[in-house]
Design a protein that fits this description.
The protein is an all-alpha fold. The protein is built from 5 helices and no strands. It is globular, with a radius of gyration of 14 Å. Keywords: Membrane, Transmembrane, Transmembrane helix. It is a multi-pass membrane protein.
Length: 90
Amino acid sequence: MRKAWKKARLLFHTYRLIPFLVGFFCSHEIPLSKKMTYVLIIFAYFVFPFDLLPDWLGIFGIFDDVAIFMWILQKMIEASPHHLKRKYGV
C-alpha cells in the first residue's frame, strides 16, 4: 500500500520533477549512454503508435500512457545519484 501511495504522489507532483530532469541530464555522474537510453525510450514511445491499450478506449487508453511515463520517470529516479534525489526531494 505504501508503494502505491508513493507512485500516486509522484503522479500528482510531476511538475516538480522538471528541475530534477534538468539536473539529471546535466549531471556529470550519470553516463551519457544511460541518459541517451532514457531519451530514446521516451522518444520511441511517443513516436511509435503501439500502445498496450488503444487510445480509443477512453480513460483506459490514456491510463497506460500515464503508467508507462511514470514507470520511465521512476526508473530515472532510481538511476540518479542520492545527492540529486535529496536536492530535488524525490
